[in-house]
Amino acid sequence: MAAFVAVTLIVFWPAVSVLAVFSFQHEFSSHVPLIPVLSLYLFYIERRVIFRDVQSSITPGGILILAGAALYVWVMAHSSSKSAAEFLPGSTLAMVVVWMGGFLVCYGYRAWRAAAFPLLFLLLMVPLPEPMLARTINYLQVGSTSLSFSLFKLVGVPVFRQGFLLSVPGQTIEVAKECSGIRSSIALLITCLLAAHLFLRTPWKMLLFVALVLPVSIVKNAIRIVTLTLLSIYVDPGFLRGNLHHDGGFVFFLLALAILFPVLLLLQKSEKHTGHSTASIPRDPASGLARG
Prior knowledge:
Layout: H1 2-11, H2 13-25, H3 34-45, H4 47-50, H5 58-78, H6 84-107, H7 109-114, H8 116-121, H9 130-154, E1 160-162, E2 165-168, E3 171-174, H10 182-199, H11 203-211, H12 213-234, H13 243-247, H14 249-274
Antiparallel strand pairs: 1-2, 2-3
Helix pairs in contact: 1-6, 2-6, 5-6, 9-12, 10-11, 10-14, 12-14
């Protein structure tokens, strides 16, 4: 499998090299280099379950490899402008599909099924297509602006809204695309996906926890906007241009985690009461005993 991945990296190198540069130049793709590392870590900690039953599945794996290769050729041939944002989503998806096919060939369907989450997790390497990214950013802008407007009124600060502009005494701020929180929202999504996979077992509870990412991202972003604005009004106008504005996103990211952590504990505790906490423990069919 390692040799197969190495060969695919050579074959896909034109797209891989562009993806590496793209991920460092665009904040909404800065997570891309981290995804394969996290996926490998998941393979490592779950290796005894994943590789317990290994049997090659050449035909379905070969079909996936051919499908991924065909997609890559088609994307590279039909990218008119050759801009990274245009061909990277398709070419990266093609590479991930080829890796999934290679895993099937090497380890078989049962191992693929056991490794479904680490394999599908690799799809987060695929940069969002520009139309989807624009809609997501717009949704975050609208939600953050609306909630910030409500929070200003809640704390008694006079505020006037016009589109993405919020006017308060002495300041007019714009919830621009850069203020949408798209980067921290993606980071929060990755964190919640990992937490749901590692600590929850019931599918609907996992989906519920991950679905909270969007509203919590909007809440976190609105709190950040209101906090910085209030500090600029009542403490120092420089807060809107200082380090807390440009580099303080991590502080509010921790706030989002603080909101989600009790929810995760509550969902995990409910699974213990309903007996789902042992659902993922593999059992030895010969002895019927749970294996650690």
